[in-house]
Amino acid sequence: MSNSDNREQCSVKLLPMNQPISVEALAPRRRHPVSKTWTVEGIEALFNLPFSDLLYKAQGVHREHFNPNEVQLSTLVSVKTGGCPEDCGYCPQSSRYETGVEDKPTMALEEVLAAARLAQSRGATRFCMGAAWRGPKQKDLDPVLDMVKGVKALGMETCATLGLLRAGQAEQLKAAGLDYYNHNIDTAPDYYGSIIATREFNDRLDTLDRVRGAGVKVCCGGIVGMGESRTQRAAMITTLANLDPQPESVPINMLVRVEGTPLANAADFDWSEFVRTIACARIAMPDSMVRLSAGRTQMPEAMQALCLLAGANSIFYGEKLLTTGNPEAELDRQFLDKLGYVPQTV
Ligand code: SAM
Ligand code: DTB
Ligand code: SF4
């Protein structure tokens, strides 16, 4: 990672009760407009704010950087499902767990383009292609390059999530027209080993470096509700916010508990803590798209509305994520209409 040398450390002072909340008091001043260092303590202090103060602050930051009534609709398609050799404890696509997800071949180009055209006709402007690989071999990557070219030619924003990349692969994706590469840190550095044993946290950072180096925008976020502590959630947001430059796109997923995975019986996760996580991501990464990602089928509309109020400005749109469900597109349109949100058009 290319962390800049001139970053300041943040010493956090908790604010006295009943004083106006200033986020500058919780984070160091910026030396230049894009880069500042957050500390786990600084982000945790945000988490610890009264809910109302935190949301007010996050909404203020959101309004300074985005149209607060606009939401980007992103459709996700699993172009290669199942049979993954990795052991990510949350994932229904690992071949190590009995989840009922079959190992399927890579989708045909025409099928992917048909899905993209349908998504576009329904109002999606972003199309994300996911594959259940540890990372692509060249023979895996070749068909994906054609998919990226085809989707880009439709005029959609393109994103792919294919696992760890080797040298040169990000450049090929860039040349094909890839706008974003999604590669999540998933959780706090010190919790990563409890969730995934087949690769290391630093392997993820190496791929993110490759993506950046090739000039592809970084989509990097994580999952909450995997048994991590609040401090660990704060550490995950801190790690994301201290990527330099910050990721342009930050998906925040609520764990989807899938039967057969090691995390199938994870404890229920409190809705307000999820909303707080979104708010902290918005405050710490003011220019990034914050994506309310997996887990919406389990979220009441009012909770989703709070996530948007806290600064999320993108949702997955369409009945399926990769292997699990997502709200019906028509229901999402009604939900957004009701609240006066408009889909982002570019
Ligand atoms: N195989 C590639 C990889 O792991 O980077 C790409 C696909 S993988 C399914 C993309 C991301 O989906 C994971 O990093 C994780 O954050 C998210 N994800 C997978 N299963 C999930 C679940 N059950 N609940 C929430 N998010 C999940
Ligand atoms: C991300 O952070 N979430 C999406 C996308 N990036 C690829 C994936 C969610 C997957 C949820 C479980 C499933 O449907 O298999
Ligand atoms: Fe494989 Fe990705 Fe699932 Fe991990 S998250 S098991 S790497 S598909």
| Cα-based radius of gyration, to the nearest Å | 19 Å
- Look up the CATH topology: TIM Barrel
The number of strands is 10
Show unreliable segments: 1-34
The largest pleated sheet is described as:
10 strands, parallel
What is the CATH homologous superfamily assignment? Aldolase class I
Rounded mean pLDDT score: 92
Could you characterize the architecture of this molecule?
It is a single chain. With 346 residues, the chain is α/β, with parallel strands linked by helices. The chain has a single domain, classed as Aldolase class I (TIM Barrel, Alpha-Beta Barrel), CATH 3.20.20.70. Helix content is 36%, strand content 13%. Strand 7 (249-254), helix 9 (271-284) and strand 8 (289-292) form a beta-alpha-beta unit. The model is unreliable at 1-34 (pLDDT under 50). The structure holds S-adenosylmethionine (SAM), 6-(5-methyl-2-OXO-imidazolidin-4-yl)-hexanoic acid and iron/sulfur cluster. Residues 76, 92, 128, 130, 161, 182, 184, 221, 251, 253, 256, 293-294, 321-324 line the site of 6-(5-methyl-2-OXO-imidazolidin-4-yl)-hexanoic acid.
Please describe the structure with a list of short key phrases separated by commas or semicolons.
alpha/beta, binds iron/sulfur cluster, binds S-adenosylmethionine, TIM Barrel, ten-stranded parallel β-sheet, 10 strands, 11 helices, 346 residues, binds 6-(5-methyl-2-OXO-imidazolidin-4-yl)-hexanoic acid
